[in-house]
Fold this protein.
Amino acid sequence: MLVELRRLARGALTEARWHAALLALPPKVAMFQARARRLAWRHRDMFSLTSVTRPADLRTLLALARGRRRVVELGTATGWTAISLALADPGRTVVSYDVAHRPEPERYLRLAGAGARGRIRLEVRDAAEGPADRAPVDLLYIDSSHERAPTIAQVHAWRPVLGPGAVVIFDDYTHPDYPGVREAVDELGLAGERRGTLFVHTVV
């Protein structure tokens, strides 16, 4: 009984901290994230609960995306990040690529509202094949395989649509379970800076 009470207390504390961290996000994004998390718990969607971008990293990502109208995400997963990027700027379009179709994004897209939903496009496509069109990209967020070779291939494939001033952001750059991200950045010889768990490179 005592063990169970401690487990419940730890879970409640984790949820309280997570929701407190949402206060640093734009109101529309924070509201969506809170609703999405409640929906995930209701559906016992542990994939979404454990794989979403952490609020602190999402705050950094949204700050880096400020003023950037065309954003591409490699690695859709739950769709929460793509939706948050669209909600943060009513003039922004977001295209998110993943190698496989998953049911989760459609569930959470219903929470985004028609305005944001119309500015989000989901592509089932290997990101290493490059973009489906040649439209310039202002920000490329790489959160896919986390392995060295695929990450390098993705950067090479997307370079043609990244003009001067475009930003490339690598998720989990400091994560000990995903050394391939740092290895890819090092092998590509990319200059940039660490922002939390992210690595940020600006194209010159």
In short: Residues 56 and 157 are 29 Å apart (CA to CA).
